Amino acid sequence: MWSLLALAIPVIIHLFYFRRFKRVYFTNVRFLKEIKEETSSRNKLKNLLILAMRLLAVACLVFAFAQPFIPTGQQVKLGEKAVSIFIDNSFSMAAEKENIPLLDLAKDRAEKIVNAYGEDTRFQIITHDFEGRHQRLVSKDEALAMIEEIVISPAVQPLSKVINRQRQVLKGDHHLIFLISDFQKSITDLKPWTDSLTELNLLPVQHSVSKNVSIDSAWFAAPVPILGEANQLVIKYTNHSDEAVEELSASIFKDGQEKPSGLISIDPQSSVTDTLPISILKTGIHEAVLRLKDFPVQFDDSLYLSFLVKEKVKVLSINEKGPDRYLQALFGGISYFQFDNQEAGRIQYQVFKDYDLILINDIRTMSSGLADELYRYIETGGKVMILPGKEIELASYNNFLSRSKARTLQNWVAVNKQVSNLNSNDFVFADVFTSNPANLRLPSTKGSFAFAGQQSSTSLTIMTYRDGSPYLFRSAVGEGQLYVCASSLNAEYNDLGSLAEIFVPMLYKMALVKNKGANLSYFIGKDNLVEIENQKTNGESVYKLKGVNEFIPSQHGFGRKIVLDVKNQVMKAGYYDVVLGDRIQERLAFNYDRRESDLSLYADSELGDMVKNDAVNILGFEEQEGIRDFVGEKDRGIVLWKWFILAALLFLLAEILIIRYVKNG
Question: Which structural domains are found in the chain, ordered by start?
Answer without folding.
Answer: 2-68+641-661 (no CATH), 81-209+599-639 (3.40.50.410), 213-306 (2.60.40.10), 313-512 (3.40.50.880), 522-591 (2.60.40)
